[in-house]
Amino acid sequence: MMHVLDHISLEFLEGEMVCLLGPSGCGKSTLLRIIAGFDTPASGEVTIDGEKVRGPSPHHIFVFQHSGLLPWMTVWQNVELGVRNVGDVRARGEIIQENIDMVDLTGFEQHYPYQLSGGMQRRAELARALAANPDVLIMDEPFNGLDFLSHMKIREEIVNMHELLRKTTLVVTHDIDDALLMGDRVVVMSGRPAQVTLNRQLDFPHPRDPKKNTVLGDARDELFLMLGVSYAI
Ligand SMILES: Nc1ncnc2c1ncn2[C@@H]1O[C@H](COP(=O)(O)OP(=O)(O)OP(=O)(O)O)[C@@H](O)[C@H]1O
Ligand SMILES: [Mg+2]
């Protein structure tokens, strides 16, 4: 059996956005799967408000997955999947519309995923995750496969949404700038068997610019060094 995670102990505060960085294959997705209850750790446990997570529960923890839209369903129907637990049809409709509006997809309710650009699809996925209104939102590399501009735009939107809703959010990313520009805190994991090598608060107001803020710039250099890159542009 492969030893992937080693003595990982992390605490997430309500409302904060934590970004998790680490080399490829170190166990970030594994850790997310354990937190979300999809996998059981060989030892240790995950608790939310003192209660042990015993299995997947989308209303407690929702994992934002890209390419998760069902191609035979419209944007509206896909978002509706997140709110199946709301019995009242009118209330459900309001939640769906509210979240579609929030991600700027008003007017695309009856479109199918193939009729949307990659960035719009990602927005629809985000609307579904937000509509589910989970206690914790988990995002595993949410910008994967997006072009540069869509990446920047959706990143900004996620930051704005987080400022507005203050939902406890855990984001795994390969991108140091994503972590620096988004996180209230950044956690770095080492190579396998992964341990936490840095757990740092990032108390900087948004929007952030590491080129203008020297403390943030220094933190950026340090993160690159920790991840094995000595000269980062
Ligand atoms: N389905 C699987 N079967 C066997 N081993 C796996 C499987 N998934 C992951 N692993 C092993 O567990 C380790 C951790 O994988 P994990 O996907 O958690 O890494 P990661 O940090 O998310 O990597 P990446 O940044 O590339 O997404 C890997 O090194 C791999 O060897
Ligand atoms: Mg991964």
TrEMBL record:
Q: According to its UniProt record, which protein family does this protein belong to?
A: Belongs to the ABC transporter superfamily.
What name has this protein been given in UniProt?
ABC transporter ATP-binding protein
Q: Name one Pfam family in it.
A: ABC_tran
What's one GO MF term for it?
ATP binding
For this protein, the record's Gene3D superfamilies field holds:
P-loop containing nucleotide triphosphate hydrolases (3.40.50.300)
| Every ABC transporter domain range | 2-216
SUPFAM superfamilies in the cross-refs: P-loop containing nucleoside triphosphate hydrolases
Q: Which organism is it from?
A: Candidatus Competibacter phosphatis
Lineage top rank: taxon: Bacteria
Which InterPro entries does the record associate with it? AAA+_ATPase (IPR003593), ABC_transporter-like_ATP-bd (IPR003439), ABC_transporter-like_CS (IPR017871), ABC_transporter_ATP-bind (IPR050166), P-loop_NTPase (IPR027417)
- What are the entry keywords? ATP-binding, Nucleotide-binding, Transport
